[in-house]
C-alpha cells in the first residue's frame, strides 16, 4: 500500500484537517524495535507508521513486519548535539562513533530499504540561539540537500518524499523554507526543530509560520510535541502526524497515562475537578491497590495485572515494569488519536478540545 496517496477526506471546521491515513502518531524505533518491547509484544500494538532512523540503521538492519516505515536520519527523541555540517555531508553520532552521511549514501539506504516514506536530509541546529547567519545557511543547505535527495531517488521508487522544514526562531526563514520546499515534487512535510522552541506559545507560532505556505492536500508531521494539550493545539493549526516520544518518555519515568478525549469521558471528569494525565507507579498509594490500572483499557497491563503489581515491579526495578507501562501508554495514545479523529468526523473537535483543557491539569 503506497502511503504517498494521501487524501484529505474531510475538513470539518476551518483550520482543522482529517487525513485518510493521517492524524496519528508514528512509533519510534530503536535498533529495530519499539523501546522495551519484544517482537511478540510489539504485535499487540495497532499497526501504523514506524519511524526508523539512519543513525540506528548504520548498525542494525530493519526489523519491521507489520507497520509502514518512515525513514529519517536522526531520532528526535534522543539527546543530540548537531555537529557542524559540511556542504556535502551530514555528520551524526552513531553507536560506531561520528559518521558522515552524504545524500548519495542516505539515498542508497532509502533505495535499498524502500520505506513507505523517507524524510530528506536537512541541516539541524542546536537551539534557537544560533546566529542568524547559521540559521540562514541551514535553510539554504537543506533545500540543496532536498534537491539532491529527490534527484537520487530511484525513478521507479514508491517511497513518498517528505521535506524537512526549518528556519528556527526566524519567521521569514521558516516561511522561506516552507515555500521553497512546497515548490518541489514532495509528498509531505516534517517540522523537525520544534523542541528548540523556548515556550509552548512560541512553538505554536513556529508551527503556524511553517504551515501557512503549504498545500492543504499534503500531510504535515511534527516531531516531539511534548504533551497532549499541545498536540490538540497543533491539530487545530493543521498538523496531521505526530510521534510517540511522549508516551515512551512517560513510561521511562514510571508514569502510566490516564486520559481520554471526547465522548470517552472518565469518571473523574464527572466531578468537574481537573485531574492528572498519569498515575505515578512509584507512588506508595498503589501499594495495596488491587484494581486494574484502567478497567476500560484493552492492553496487557490492564487486563492481567493490578496497580499493586505494577507498583511492585517499579519498586523492584523489574524490566517488566517498563514493558507493561510502555504497552499501556502506547494503547492510551492510540485511543487518544482515534477519539480525536472521531471528534473531527462529528465536527465537535473545538468543543471537545476545550473540555480536555478543563478536565486535565497541565503537566
Ligand atoms: Zn492499559
From TrEMBL:
<keyword id="KW-0963">Cytoplasm</keyword>
<dbReference type="GO" id="GO:0008479">
    <property type="term" value="F:tRNA-guanosine(34) queuine transglycosylase activity"/>
</dbReference>
<dbReference type="InterPro" id="IPR036511">
    <property type="entry name" value="TGT-like_sf"/>
</dbReference>
<dbReference type="GO" id="GO:0005737">
    <property type="term" value="C:cytoplasm"/>
</dbReference>
<comment type="function">
    <text>Non-catalytic subunit of the queuine tRNA-ribosyltransferase (TGT) that catalyzes the base-exchange of a guanine (G) residue with queuine (Q) at position 34 (anticodon wobble position) in tRNAs with GU(N) anticodons (tRNA-Asp, -Asn, -His and -Tyr), resulting in the hypermodified nucleoside queuosine (7-(((4,5-cis-dihydroxy-2-cyclopenten-1-yl)amino)methyl)-7-deazaguanosine).</text>
</comment>
<feature type="binding site">
    <location>
        <position position="328"/>
    </location>
    <ligand>
        <name>Zn(2+)</name>
    </ligand>
</feature>
<protein>
    <recommendedName>
        <fullName>Queuine tRNA-ribosyltransferase accessory subunit 2</fullName>
    </recommendedName>
</protein>
<feature type="binding site">
    <location>
        <position position="299"/>
    </location>
    <ligand>
        <name>Zn(2+)</name>
    </ligand>
</feature>
<comment type="similarity">
    <text>Belongs to the queuine tRNA-ribosyltransferase family. QTRT2 subfamily.</text>
</comment>
<feature type="domain" description="tRNA-guanine(15) transglycosylase-like">
    <location>
        <begin position="92"/>
        <end position="360"/>
    </location>
</feature>
<dbReference type="Pfam" id="PF01702">
    <property type="entry name" value="TGT"/>
</dbReference>
<keyword id="KW-0479">Metal-binding</keyword>
<dbReference type="InterPro" id="IPR050852">
    <property type="entry name" value="Queuine_tRNA-ribosyltrfase"/>
</dbReference>
<comment type="subunit">
    <text>Heterodimer of a catalytic subunit and an accessory subunit.</text>
</comment>
<dbReference type="GO" id="GO:0046872">
    <property type="term" value="F:metal ion binding"/>
</dbReference>
<feature type="binding site">
    <location>
        <position position="297"/>
    </location>
    <ligand>
        <name>Zn(2+)</name>
    </ligand>
</feature>
<feature type="binding site">
    <location>
        <position position="302"/>
    </location>
    <ligand>
        <name>Zn(2+)</name>
    </ligand>
</feature>
<dbReference type="InterPro" id="IPR002616">
    <property type="entry name" value="tRNA_ribo_trans-like"/>
</dbReference>
<keyword id="KW-0819">tRNA processing</keyword>
<dbReference type="GO" id="GO:0006400">
    <property type="term" value="P:tRNA modification"/>
</dbReference>
<dbReference type="InterPro" id="IPR028592">
    <property type="entry name" value="QTRTD1"/>
</dbReference>
<keyword id="KW-0862">Zinc</keyword>
Amino acid at each position: 500500500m503506497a502511503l504517498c496517496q494521501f487524501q484529505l477526506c474531510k475538513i470539518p471546521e476551518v483550520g482543522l484537517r482529517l487525513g485518510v491515513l493521517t492524524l496519528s502518531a508514528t512509533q519510534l524505533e530503536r535498533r529495530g524495535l519499539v523501546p522495551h518491547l519484544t517482537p511478540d509484544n510489539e504485535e499487540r500494538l495497532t499497526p501504523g507508521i514506524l519511524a526508523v532512523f539512519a543513525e540506528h540503521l548504520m548498525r542494525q538492519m530493519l526489523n519491521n513486519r507489520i507497520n509502514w516505515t518512515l525513514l529519517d536520519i536522526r531520532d528526535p527523541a534522543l539527546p543530540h548535539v548537531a555537529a557542524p555540517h559540511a556542504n556535502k555531508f551530514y555528520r551524526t553520532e552513531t553507536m560506531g562513533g561520528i559518521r558522515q552521511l552524504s545524500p548519495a549514501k542516505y539515498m542508497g539506504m532509502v533505495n535499498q530499504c524502500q520505506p513507505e516514506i523517507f524524510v530528506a536530509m536537512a541541516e539541524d541546529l542546536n537551539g534557537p540561539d544560533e546566529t542568524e547567519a547559521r540559521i540562514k545557511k541551514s535553510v539554504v543547505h537543506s533545500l540543496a540537500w532536498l534537491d539532491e535527495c529527490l534527484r537520487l531517488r530511484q525513478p521507479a521508487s514508491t517511497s513518498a518524499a517528505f521535506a524537512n522544514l526549518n528556519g528556527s526562531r526566524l519567521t521569514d526563514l521558516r516561511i522561506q523554507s516552507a515555500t521553497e520546499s512546497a515548490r518541489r515534487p514532495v509528498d509531505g512535510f516534517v517540522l523537525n526543530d520544534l523542541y528548540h522552541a523556548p515556550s509552548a506559545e512560541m512553538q505554536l507560532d513556529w508551527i503556524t509560520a511553517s504551515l501557512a505556505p503549504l498545500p492543504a492536500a499534503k500531510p504535515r508531521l511534527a516531531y516531539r510535541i511534548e504533551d497532549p494539550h499541545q498536540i490538540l493545539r497543533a491539530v487545530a493549526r493543521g498538523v496531521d502526524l505526530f510521534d510517540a516520544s511522549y508516551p515512551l518518555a512517560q513510561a521511562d519515568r514510571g508514569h502510566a497515562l490516564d486520559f481520554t478525549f471526547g465522548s470517552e469521558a472518565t469518571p473523574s471528569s464527572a466531578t468537574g475537578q481537573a485531574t492528572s494525565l498519569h498515575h505515578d507507579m512509584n507512588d506508595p498509594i498503589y501499594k495495596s491497590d488491587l484494581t486494574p490500572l484502567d478497567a476500560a483499557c484493552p492492553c496487557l497491563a490492564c487486563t492481567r495485572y493490578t496497580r499493586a503489581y505494577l507498583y511492585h515491579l517499579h519498586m523492584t526495578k523489574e524490566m517488566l515494569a517498563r514493558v507493561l507501562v510502555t504497552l499501556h501508554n502506547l494503547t492510551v495514545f492510540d485511543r487518544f488519536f482515534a477519539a480525536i479523529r472521531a471528534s473531527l468526523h462529528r465536527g465537535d473537535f473545538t468543543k471537545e478540545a476545550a473540555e480536555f483543557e478543563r478536565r486535565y491539569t497541565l503537566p
